[in-house]
Amino acid sequence: MTRVTVIGTGYLGLTHAVCMADLGHEVLAIDVDEAKITMAAGGQAPFFEPGLEPLLRKNLDAGTLRFTTSFAEIGDFGEVHFLCVGTPEGASGKADLSFVDAAADALAPHLASPCLIVGKSTVPVGTARRVARRVQAAAPAGAAVEMAWNPEFLREGFAVADSLTPDRIVLGVTSSRGEELMRQVYATALASGIPLLVMDLETAELVKVAANAFLATKISFINSMAEVCEQAGADVMPLAEALGYDTRIGRRFLSPGLGYGGGCLPKDVRAFRATASDLGVDSLVSLLTAVDGINLGRRDRVVELAEDAAGGTLDGKRVAVLGIAFKPNSDDLRESPSLDICDRLAARGAIVSVHDPVAMPNAARKRPGLLCAESVSAAAEGAHVLLHLTEWADYRAIDPAALAKVVAQRVIIDARCCLDADLWSSAGWTVRVLGRPLSVSGRSDGRR
Ligand SMILES: NC(=O)c1ccc[n+]([C@@H]2O[C@H](COP(=O)([O-])OP(=O)(O)OC[C@H]3O[C@@H](n4cnc5c(N)ncnc54)[C@H](O)[C@@H]3O)[C@@H](O)[C@H]2O)c1
Q1: Residue to mutate (ligand 1; options 6, 7, 12; most atoms within 8 A of CB)
Q2: Could you tell me what percent of the chain has a pLDDT over 70?
Q3: Residue 447 pLDDT > 50, yes or no?
Q4: From edge to edge, which strands make up the β-sheet containing 26-30?
Q5: pTM for the whole thing?
Q6: Hey, whose CA ends up nearest to atom 43 of ligand 1?
Q7: What are the DSSP calls for 277-342, one per residue?
């Protein structure tokens, strides 16, 4: 059992704190946002994440997980301090490291004994060593405060399972003492055979951004193929399936659609591009510029299709949007492609009504003017076009015949390429699917 602190209790930090406690460590977590700490200490997660709240309550009840707003308490308590604060997009796409620096500055004066600070936030290469120097200069324990970097790969929607049983643990360290401490922290995972990859700080920082850049590239690649298919009258779905059977390529992250969003991929791709530019690696700058451009281009295409479906103009037309979260099983609206499309539609004069199974409160807070409907049919009432923008399982269970009765015009654009196009078209809908020709997706004879 190790005394662990977690600094920053957002999507990453709260999940990490809960899972560390569940693995048997004594955990104290801190955030500068008092409201978040009050909620978490009361057993409520400040965001939607399947399976998190029961585990939070279990470990609060067991007394192994506590929350505070005092850095003095954190500094006194921890043998290992996990740094989990945000690193949002800053000026010209660079990562904004002000939260990392502020957390390090707040912690350092309270570090009187040897300890390990472990960064989990996604940061540009070189950050760990810079932060280590900054903390050591201000900490009473000086050089006995060590730095490690342990990038996090969890996916929102699967965050608990990903934290407890990750594919691998990546660890950048500067000493065997640091490595030993981290082996203790992750003893359960290591005993179950999860690989631990130990390396220097810089390489560990780069693994995370390289992984996200690769995943984003894979998504943009298949979306580029979707564009090719639309132009060539081909069908991207069987194309993706056929590519995916090649074990060198693999099926995952090869789903065509509206592209990626959220608090990680978009900002990490842009931050890595900024790093590549600083390092003079122009080939990577070009690659990531293209990846980002293809991703944003999917949104243009959806707006274009909506305009087309609405008869050439969106002005005064009603558009119903299914899904506002950036992905299913999350209420996260950061860089949500759907929210961006809603803004673009509204800018063209459309009356946009949205539905989402869990993200409506966040949507109402973020866009007070947005019409937030309580149900799919309320959103679709009088709609000239229906847009499927987040692939919640609930939307695959919609009865298109029932929904047909409330809309003004039976047109659906499936931007996530996962609805049953035959079912919808046999209920009288015109179905447009990104990357699939109308003759396939909108077929009424049910054949593929
Ligand atoms: N969300 C994910 O799925 C995910 C996955 C892997 C990596 N990451 C990385 O993890 C980091 C955190 O992401 P997130 O999604 O949890 O962000 P978030 O915005 O949800 O959480 C960050 C938290 O840090 C707190 N904070 C800010 N400054 C602080 C300070 N000085 N002291 C204490 N707390 C402070 C904020 O109040 C907030 O609660 C980012 O670098 C992100 O790229 C996120």
Answers
A1: 12
A2: 98
A3: no
A4: 65-68, 26-30, 3-7, 80-83, 115-119, 145-149, 169-172, 196-199
A5: 0.94
A6: 122
A7: HHHT-HHHHHHHHHHHHHHHHHHHHHHHHHHHHTTS--TT-EEEEE--SSSTT----TT-HHHHHH
